[in-house]
Design a protein that fits this description.
alpha+beta; 5-stranded antiparallel beta sheet; 5 strands
Length: about 400
C-alpha cells in the first residue's frame, strides 16, 4: 500500500510538472524542442488520413444502410461481438408484397401476372443488393475500421508518449540552464574591499555545490534526450507506415468499385430482362400498341416521349408503308419509307445506342441525325436518318432541335 501511494504521488508530481511546462510553452515563457520538418509533415499526413478515413467510412455506411436505427443496431451487435441478424432488403420486401398482391388479385389476370414478374425481378435486385452490401462491408469497410481501431490507436498512443518525452526533455533543459546560471553567479570574483574573508569560504562552497548540480542536470538532460530520440524513432516508423495504409486502402477501394459495378450490372440486366418480358406481353394486353422497343432500355429524358412525338409531324400514309396494323406486328419495311417533304427535324444524340436488330439505327453520342414520325408508330420511337442509313431510334436518346 505504501508503495502504491508513493507511486501515485510520484505520478501526480510528474503530471503536474508536465502541465506547468506545457502551459509555460503556450504562454511563451518556456523554450520548446521543435521537431524536424519531415517529422511534422508525417504528423500532418497522418492526421489528414485519419480524418478522411473517418468521413469516408461514415458516408459509405450511410450509402449501404440509409436507416440510422439499423446502423446503430449493427454497431451495438459488433461491439457486443454478436452476429448481426439477417435483415430483409427493401427490394425483397417489395417483392414479397407484389407476390402477395398478385395472389389476391389472381395470378391468372394480366395485372396479377405482371405483379409476379415484377416481384420476381425485385427479389433478384434485393439479392444483388444484399451481396453488394456484404462484399463492401468485408472488402472496404472492415479495413477502414481496422485502421482506425488498430493502427491509428497505436500511433496516437506513441504520439502521446513522445509528447511526454519532449516535455521531460524541455524541463531538464530548463533545470540545466538555471543551474548553469546559478553556478556562474556563485563563481563570480567577490569585491576585496567590501567582502569579508569568511565569505570567500561560503562562495567557494556554493560554487562547488552548483557545479555538482550542473553535472546532475546535464546527466538528466542526456537521459531525457536519449529517451526522446528513441521514442521519436518509434513514432516516425509508425507514421511512415501510413504509406502502406494508403496502398492497402487503394486496393480495398478497387474491390469496392468492382463490387458496385457488379451490383449495378446485375440490376441493369434484371431490368432489361423484365422489360423484355413486359414488352412481349404488351401486345397481348394492349393489342393496338407497337412493341418494337421491347429489347431497348432508353435512359430517362427531360421531355416526355408523348410530348416529343407530338412535335414531330406524321407524314401521310405512303404506298407500301407500314400501316398501324403492320406496325403493331413490327413489320416495318424501311426501304419503302420516304421522309416527308416538310416536317423533318434535326436531333442531337444524347447517349450511345446499340441497335437491337436491322430495323434500328445505332447511335453515337453528340452526333446529329434527321428524324420524323410515321403513322401508327409507338410514340417512344422515331425514324432516324444519317446519310444513307435509316432506322428506328428511341426518343429518349435524342434532343430535338428547332
Amino acid at each position: 500500500m505504501d508503495f502504491n501511494m508513493k507511486k501515485l504521488a510520484s505520478d501526480a508530481g510528474v503530471f503536474f510538472s508536465r502541465a506547468v511546462q506545457f502551459t509555460e510553452e503556450k504562454l511563451g515563457q518556456a523554450e520548446k524542442t521543435e521537431l524536424d520538418a519531415h517529422f511534422e509533415n508525417l504528423l500532418a499526413r497522418a492526421d489528414i488520413t485519419k480524418n478522411w478515413t473517418e468521413k469516408i467510412l461514415h458516408q459509405t455506411e450511410v450509402l449501404l444502410q440509409p436507416n440510422p436505427s439499423a446502423r446503430v443496431e449493427e454497431f451495438l451487435y459488433e461491439k457486443l461481438d454478436r452476429k448481426v441478424p439477417s435483415r430483409v432488403t427493401n427490394g425483397e420486401l417489395l417483392a414479397q408484397y407484389m407476390v402477395e398482391a398478385a395472389n389476391d388479385f389472381g395470378p391468372g389476370t394480366p395485372y396479377g401476372k405482371t405483379l409476379l414478374k415484377v416481384g420476381e425481378t425485385q427479389k433478384r435486385l434485393g439479392g444483388a443488393e444484399r451481396d453488394f452490401m456484404h462484399s463492401a462491408s468485408i472488402n472496404f469497410l472492415n479495413p477502414l475500421r481496422n485502421f482506425l481501431e488498430g493502427d491509428w490507436r497505436t500511433i496516437t498512443k506513441e504520439r502521446k508518449i513522445l509528447e511526454n518525452r519532449r516535455l521531460d526533455l524541455d524541463a531538464c533543459k530548463a533545470r540545466l540552464k538555471k543551474a548553469k546560471a546559478a553556478e556562474a553567479k556563485a563563481s563570480a570574483v567577490p569585491d576585496f574591499q567590501e567582502t569579508r574573508p569568511r565569505n570567500y569560504i561560503l562562495s567557494a562552497s556554493a560554487s562547488a555545490l552548483w557545479s555538482d548540480e550542473v553535472e546532475k542536470a546535464e546527466h538528466e538532460r542526456r537521459l531525457a534526450q536519449t529517451e526522446f530520440d528513441r521514442q521519436a524513432e518509434v513514432t516516425r516508423l509508425l507514421l511512415e507506415g501510413i504509406s502502406s495504409t494508403h496502398v492497402n486502402h487503394l486496393r480495398c477501394l478497387h474491390e469496392f468499385v468492382e463490387a458496385q459495378t457488379t451490383y449495378y450490372a446485375q440490376g441493369y440486366q434484371c431490368m432489361l430482362d423484365l422489360q423484355k418480358q413486359l414488352g412481349s406481353s404488351k401486345g397481348e394486353i394492349f393489342p393496338g400498341t407497337f412493341v418494337g422497343n421491347a429489347e431497348s432500355s432508353p435512359p430517362p429524358a427531360t421531355t416526355s416521349p408523348t410530348t416529343v412525338a407530338a412535335t414531330i409531324p406524321a407524314m401521310p400514309t405512303l404506298v407500301g408503308a407500314a400501316t398501324p396494323a403492320t406496325a403493331g406486328e413490327g413489320a416495318l419495311n424501311l426501304n419503302d419509307v420516304k421522309p416527308p417533304a416538310s416536317g423533318t427535324r434535326k436531333a442531337r444524340v444524347l447517349y450511345d445506342y446499340e441497335a437491337a436488330d436491322s430495323s434500328e439505327l445505332a447511335l453515337l453520342a453528340d452526333e446529329m441525325i434527321t428524324v420524323y414520325s410515321l403513322p401508327g408508330m409507338d410514340p417512344d420511337w422515331l425514324i432516324g436518318e444519317r446519310g444513307n442509313q435509316k432506322g428506328k431510334v428511341p426518343v429518349t436518346y435524342l434532343e430535338l432541335l428547332s
